[in-house]
Amino acid sequence: MKRLLTTLFVVLLAFSCNAQNAEELISRNQDIDSNKVIIPDEFHSKVNRIITTLLSRAHYRKFDLNDSLSGKVLDNYLSMLDNNKLYFLSSDIEKFKQYEHSFDEFLQTGDLKVPFEIFNLYKQRVGERIDYVIKTLDKDFDYSINEEIHPDRREEPWAANVDELNDLWRKRLKNDALNQKLNGTEWEKVSENLKKRFMSFHKTVLKYENEDVFQIYLNAFGETIEPHTNYMSPITAENFGINMSLSLEGIGAQLTSQNDYVTITRIIAGGPAAKSGKLEENDKIIGVAQGDDGEMVDVIGWRLDDVIQLIRGKKGTKVRLKVEKGGEGIIAKPFELELIRDKIKLEEQAAKSEIIDIEEEGTNYRIGVIDIPGFYVDWEGKRKGDPDYKSTTRDVKKILDELKKEMVDGVIVDLRNNGGGSLQEAIELTGLFIDYGPVVQVRNNDGSIDVGTDPDETIAYEGPLAVMVNRSSASASEIFSGAIQDYGRGLIIGSQTFGKGTVQNLIDLKRFMPSQPDKLGQVKLTIAKYYRITGSSTQTKGVIPDIIFPSVYDSEEFGEGARESALPWDTIAATDFKRYENIKQFLPDLIEKHRDRIEKSPEFQYYLEDVQHAVSSRERNSYSLNEEIRKKERDEAEALRKQRDEAREKLKELKLSGDEEVKSKKIFIDDPLLEESGRILANYISMKIG
User: Residue 683: which of 619, 596, 555 has the closest Cα?
Assistant: First the structure.
């Protein structure tokens, strides 16, 4: 099974490639000792043993540190270093395989010799590849040849020899050069750009210290046990704390690293990225520049943390991004976007509402929509006794009171792209829609079970309810939507949620080595698991909506279940609770009306076509390196996008003009999924009344 690339918590110096030319950058790299052998510090062995003992005793997953796990640690370590199989040779892997049953012993004894030997060979192989890159880029490629590149090599075998690896790299460089050529860049500049790109990456690898290598190795161990188990070096732990306090400052986007590309995984409501309206999840950031005239730095192949350092900056300053649309694969034509960095205020992250008017089957409905970006609470204000402190539940309660005054017929709670937050807020928010009762169960690593319960017998809103979710709805969002579904309190509409049903704890290693003068890092490990009141886990499966919308995300590529070491879905005993309604009795008719309606909706059909296009692009792993073929593909994609944009603008103009034919076709303009959810809720209201 394919899996998402692991984000490495390696905090290094952010490199600004402001060299006048590639030769100057090469000269700078020569000042770094590329032959330096990295060895562990003496105390690393003890830290290794402490972490191994800690995970063996305190982790939720009870595991045996044996030969079987040993082989997985080795595979994971190699994947973290060379995930796309572009550096190591098959002979290297065969050499490493002699240790596949020894890593359990290495971890128990703190023997770090072999892991560091593997990294030093990796660093050597990177240097060899850079030498090949510089030599190859002295001459342009022949773009008339009919040959292909397969960019995702994770499931491919390791290169058998240097000649085979050289051919893989030749095609990789040719592909990168072809993309720039199609953008109108002359060969001399293409060559310089690509040399800069790979020399910058080489400089990053050459800057690695022993703590960085130790961290990668221990993360290979931790994430073999479970995806959310990590070791953070002292500097990473320090930056993690800073990042938590600054998490909403910058452009307002969460990023990850996939196949050499920094990819957007979430657009944060209220931030510069969201306000621009031009960035979407799965878009790739391929360049970063500062201010109006700063050099556009090519960041393909960079470490995630280094790219974040370039993007982050003081509030009010400008950053320019070069972006490729995520749904078009490597044939995408990049565009440039200017953003003004800003700190996202709590009120901009707070729940917001609107009322949409829907005419469905001859009846007018007023539907209140509550958008909840996250489950937040002002802990400091609450601790100080501030009567006006902000929280998700308090804000939503006020909104519900206002919507009731507006005499809405039903309410939609929009949790799309809500990654979670406070567990207590998820419990209390559920309490606004039920009288009292259990909301979530938490099983701890000792087997004990705690039940999170809403003790308040009052109900803030008793009317018809729907909850919208998607693949990026996670954690607390899954607890709330799962409880609403289990109680039969409302319809769940959208796509399968993320499936993160685990609880983590952060442990400072200094407590185990108080006499150690050097700073020590921290360990994040999973200590508990969430379960719904029915006893079903939210882990990997998430929440399955009552009415499902197609998603651009593949559950095998995005979501908790995509991680090989994810804890499994399972069940425990159900709690006692009272269902409000048997919503399943309405589903057949609701689904039939939904299908009939979207078949007649041009905008929803556009959405379905976009989903199919994104899925096809993601599944594609073969691209021509012939310039004529590639240009034709790019032109066709560009023409299709332009045609779609023009068609949507025309539909919008017709709708605004009040065209009766357009209204009769129920055309969705701004958010087809939200409007269709409103119509589903309207059908549900009609059925309840009838």
Answer: 596
Q: What are phi and psi of 33, to 5 degrees?
A: -75, 100
pLDDT digit string, tens, across residues 64-82: 999 999 999 999 999 999 9
How many other CB atoms sit within 10 Å of the CB of residue 145?
Answer: 11
How far apart CA 371 and CA 352 sit, in angstroms, is 5
Pairing type for strands 437-444 and 449-454 reads antiparallel
Q: Which residues are catalytic?
A: 475, 486, 500
- Sole residue written with tokens 């201010």: 291
- Locate 370 and state its tokens: 């509550």
Please say whether the dihedral angle defined by the alpha carbons of residues 95, 98, 101 and 102, taken in this order, is positive or negative: negative
182, 185, 189, 190 alpha-carbon torsion, rounded to 10°: -10
Q: Could you state, in order of their start, the residue ranges of all structural domains in the chain?
A: 22-239, 246-343, 346-582
CA distance 608 to 605: 5
Q: Which amino acid is at 276?
A: S
* Confidence (pTM): 0.84
d(CA 312, CA 255): 12
Q: Which residues contact 394 (CB under 8 A, 6 or more apart)?
A: none
Question: pLDDT tens digits for 425-441?
Answer: 999 999 999 999 999 99
Residue 410 has φ and ψ, to the nearest 5°, of: -165, 170
* Domain 346-582, CATH among 3.40.190.170, 3.90.226.10, 3.40.50.300, 3.90.1150.10: 3.90.226.10
Top-level class of domain 246-343:
mainly beta
Distance CA 166, CA 491 (A): 55
Residue 531 Cα distances to 452, 524, 528, 568, angstroms:
10, 21, 10, 12
